[in-house]
From TrEMBL:
<dbReference type="InterPro" id="IPR052509">
    <property type="entry name" value="Metal_resp_DNA-bind_regulator"/>
</dbReference>
<dbReference type="InterPro" id="IPR005149">
    <property type="entry name" value="Tscrpt_reg_PadR_N"/>
</dbReference>
<dbReference type="InterPro" id="IPR036390">
    <property type="entry name" value="WH_DNA-bd_sf"/>
</dbReference>
<dbReference type="Pfam" id="PF03551">
    <property type="entry name" value="PadR"/>
</dbReference>
<dbReference type="InterPro" id="IPR036388">
    <property type="entry name" value="WH-like_DNA-bd_sf"/>
</dbReference>
<keyword id="KW-0238">DNA-binding</keyword>
<dbReference type="GO" id="GO:0003677">
    <property type="term" value="F:DNA binding"/>
</dbReference>
<feature type="domain" description="Transcription regulator PadR N-terminal">
    <location>
        <begin position="8"/>
        <end position="81"/>
    </location>
</feature>
<protein>
    <submittedName>
        <fullName>DNA-binding PadR family transcriptional regulator</fullName>
    </submittedName>
</protein>
Length: 108
């Protein structure tokens, strides 16, 4: 799963958000390391909706503009949980290897 996709799904894990809210949450989750533009975001949301991972959960009009909210589906929640577990396993393997390398290099 691509990093941006994971962060979008993770942003929605705590509940429905509109587009700008997703952009803000992705920025927070990545400590400002990932910035998503509107075109990228809505393209990703369309793809994720097509894959059954997110769905529109309502709309409201704010200052004359439609604001659409998105939420995870059950499949989306499962996908983000699986990717989180994969990343945790990868990080654990990296810590083991890095710890082993330090010991071998005599820098422990």
């Amino acid at each position: 799963m691509r990093r941006q996709t994971y962060l979008i799904l993770l942003a929605l894990a705590s509940g429905p958000l509109h587009g700008y809210g997703i952009v803000q949450r992705v920025g927070e989750l990545s400590d400002g390391g990932v910035r998503i533009g509107a075109g990228t975001l809505y393209g990703a949301l369309d793809r994720l909706a097509g894959d059954g991972l997110v769905e529109a959960s309502g709309e409201e009009v704010v200052r004359g503009r439609n604001r659409r909210y998105y939420r995870l589906t059950g499949a989306g929640r499962e996908a983000v949980a699986e990717e989180t577990a994969r990343l945790e396993n990868l990080a654990a393997a990296a810590r083991r290897l890095l710890g082993q390398a330090r010991t071998e290099w005599g820098t422990a």
